[in-house]
Amino acid sequence: MAGLAASALAGALAVAVPATSASAAECATPWNSSSVYLGGTTVSHNGHNWTARWWTQNEAPPGTSGVWSDQGACGGGTTPPPTDPDPSGFVVSEAQFNQMFPNRNSFYTYQGLKAALSAYPAFAGTGSDTVRKREAAAFLANVSHETGGLVHIVEQNTANYPHYCDSSQPYGCPAGQAAYYGRGPIQLSWNFNYKAAGDALGIDLLRNPHLVERDAAVAWKTALWYWNTQSGPGTMTPHNAMVGGHGFGETIRSINGSLECGGRNPAQVQSRIDKYQRFVQILGTTPGDNLSC
C-alpha cells in the first residue's frame, strides 16, 4: 500500500466506505392533547410520526388502544426522551410523586407503589391519557388526605384500636382484639376488611395485619384493593367513578361519604378537592367536572 498512487488509494477508500443512510422523514405537526384526530391524520410525538387509524382524542402516541400506527423516526438527530413519565406506562413519574409528597414518610416509597400496580392493572391504565392521569391524581389526593400527605402509616388515635374487631364474624380476630386499626394509604381497618383484602390479594392479612405497616407494596396494594373493588358508602367504586366520568366527588362519597358528603363536613371535602386540583396540575391535565359530593 505504501507505493500505491494517491488517486488509486482514494478510489479504494471510496469503495470501502458504506453509503450514508437516508435521512429521516420530516416530522408532522406535533400531537396535541386537546386536538381531535380523524383516521388517516399523521402527527409527530417523541421523534416519530404516527398515523391515527380512527378517531382519537387525548390518547398520546403510541397509546394503549392501537389507534396509533408508528410511521418511523422523523426529524433526524437524537430521538428525545419519551414524555410518558415512566417506561412502564404509569402516568406518575417518581419526580412527580416526590413533588406531590415532599414530606412523606420514607415507608411510602414510589417503588412500593409501582410494585403494587400489578395487583390491579386497570388502575390508571384505563381510557385516554387524561382519564388515566385524573384517576391517578384522584387516588393520590384521597390517599394524601387520609394520611396527612403520606406521613402517617397507622391510625393516630390509639384509643380506637380495640374497636375494630367484629367478633361476630366466624373467623373472629385471630391477631388480637386491638390488631385491626387503620393502616396504610387508605387506613385499612376492621377485621372483616383485613380478611377481604387479604383474600383478594392472596395474603393472610387476617392473621398478619402488621404486614400493612411493614411492607410498602402490601400497604399500597390494600389501598388499590379498596379503590378498585369497594363502593363503601357510595354507589360505585372510586375506580369506576373516574373511568366512567362521574367525577372526583364520587370517589369522596365511596371513601367517606357518610361522614363528609351532603354538607356534613365541607372542610374535609374541600381539602380533598384542593389536593386533587394540585395533583392534576402536576400531571399536566384538567380536573373535569363534579368535584364535590
From TrEMBL:
Pfam families: CBM_5_12, Glyco_hydro_19. GO terms for molecular function: carbohydrate binding; chitinase activity. Disulfide bonds join C165-C173, C261-C293. InterPro entries: CBM5/12 (IPR003610), CBM_sf_5/12 (IPR036573), Glyco_hydro_19 (IPR016283), Glyco_hydro_19_cat (IPR000726), Lysozyme-like_dom_sf (IPR023346). GO terms for biological process: carbohydrate metabolic process; cell wall macromolecule catabolic process; chitin catabolic process; defense response to fungus. Residues 28-71 form the Chitin-binding type-3 domain. Residues 58-87 are annotated as: Disordered. The active site is at E146. Residues 1-24 form the signal peptide. GO terms for cellular component: extracellular region. Keywords: Disulfide bond, Hydrolase, Plant defense, Signal. This is Predicted chitinase. It comes from Streptomyces radiopugnans. The lineage of its organism: Bacteria, Bacillati, Actinomycetota, Actinomycetes, Kitasatosporales.
